[in-house]
Design a protein that fits this description.
Residues 190-317 form the Fido domain. By secondary structure, the protein is of the alpha+beta class. It has helices spanning 27-34, 38-50, 56-59, 80-90, 92-113, 115-139, 147-171, 188-204, 219-227, 240-253, 261-275, 290-302, 308-319; strands at 3-9, 12-19, 22-26, 60-66, 72-79, 230-231, 234-235.
Length: 325
């Protein structure tokens, strides 16, 4: 269910639709917000989508709107990501002001809307965390000194934590972890070189054709540029976890290649983690094993664009450094 709130812009009041944990404006409303002609806003939106800065399907939704003639029309609305991208190009001051207002609004709305759900969830989570702590303590007892015993407990412990993430995912309460600042992305040349080596290996095993990882225009360059961009002077993706999760998502969903997008996405995801020393945890175990990587890549491929933010947070939590018990 959506709500309508009023934003007091410098050029007058703008009615903003609040729905699906974000805010939405139509093309006409963006012209009012940024005081630009509709043709100017339209041109910037086209460029944003053509350059791969945003995935159109993920940031655009049609909403029934009643016009002055009394008829109802399906009008395209653009979410906060698209609004801010346009604002960055046409009026950064107004864009910054709107971002601050929208962020405060969404925080209030989420806090108010999820209070009861969070209380119910946290009661379950506390029980699950308590059980997880018991398992961890058991792993340190002398009675389980054998490697097999410790290994069994470790598996139970890790999958209990995974279950906790998935429960939060199902409840819609999964939060973004603090993460590790930074994250070095490969250059375009490095990415192409790594993918060429992968392609040659697959060709040698007859597991790919010459179409594998063949770029569609400048899609790969635009994708890497998008991940490395700044918004209002701050990194758009400020942590290793954020970059890794979005890299996998964009590689799979934006189809930068003629063929092999899922395999290329999974490969570049692992390559990025390796470049940043995050492929293994503190014990030397892989953060995500081969089976998990395949399942995660397919989950991204089959996901609805509306699930993007929740899916991104799930991946980020899976990559977040472990906290000490």
């Amino acid at each position: 269910m959506s709500d309508i709130v009023i934003y007091e812009a410098e050029n007058g009041a703008v009615s903003v639709r609040l729905d699906s944990e974000t805010v939405w404006l139509s093309l006409q409303q963006m012209t009012e917000l940024f005081a630009r002609d509709k043709s100017v806003i339209s041109r910037h939106l086209r460029n944003i989508f053509m350059e791969g800065e945003l995935d159109r399907e993920a940031v655009v939704a049609k909403n029934a709107t009643t016009a002055a003639d009394g008829k109802t029309y399906q009008v395209e609305h653009f979410n906060l990501d698209a609004i801010l991208s346009v604002g960055y190009r046409v009026n950064s001051k107004q864009g910054t002001r709107f971002r601050q207002w929208a962020t405060h609004l969404l925080k209030e709305h989420l806090t108010r809307g999820y209070t009861l759900s969070r209380e119910r969830f946290e009661a379950n989570a506390r029980e699950l965390e308590a059980a997880l702590e018991l398992v961890r303590k058991a792993a340190r007892t002398p009675e389980l000194a054998a490697d097999s015993g410790r290994g069994l407990v470790e598996i139970v412990s890790r999958y209990t934590q995974t279950f906790l993430w998935l429960q939060r995912y199902d409840e819609g309460l999964l939060t973004e972890p603090a993460g590790s600042p930074g994250g070095l992305l490969p250059s375009l040349e490095q990415a192409r070189s790594a993918l060429t080596q992968l392609k040659n290996q697959l060709l040698a095993r007859h597991e790919a054709t010459d179409l594998f990882a063949r770029e569609r225009g400048d899609s790969l360059a635009a994708l890497l540029g998008n991940l490395d961009q700044t918004v209002f002077g701050e990194p758009a993706y400020p942590t290793i976890e954020a970059k890794a999760a979005h890299l996998l998502y964009f590689m799979v969903k934006n189809h930068p290649f003629t063929d092999g997008n899922k395999r290329s996405g999974a490969f570049m995801f692992v390559d990025f983690l390796h470049r940043n020393g995050r492929l293994l945890n503190a014990r030397g175990d892989p953060l995500i094993n081969d089976t998990g990587l395949a399942a995660l890549t397919l989950l991204v491929a089959e996901s609805d664009p509306a699930q993007k933010e929740v899916l991104i947070r799930l991946i980020m939590n899976m990559l977040a450094p472990e906290t000490s018990a």
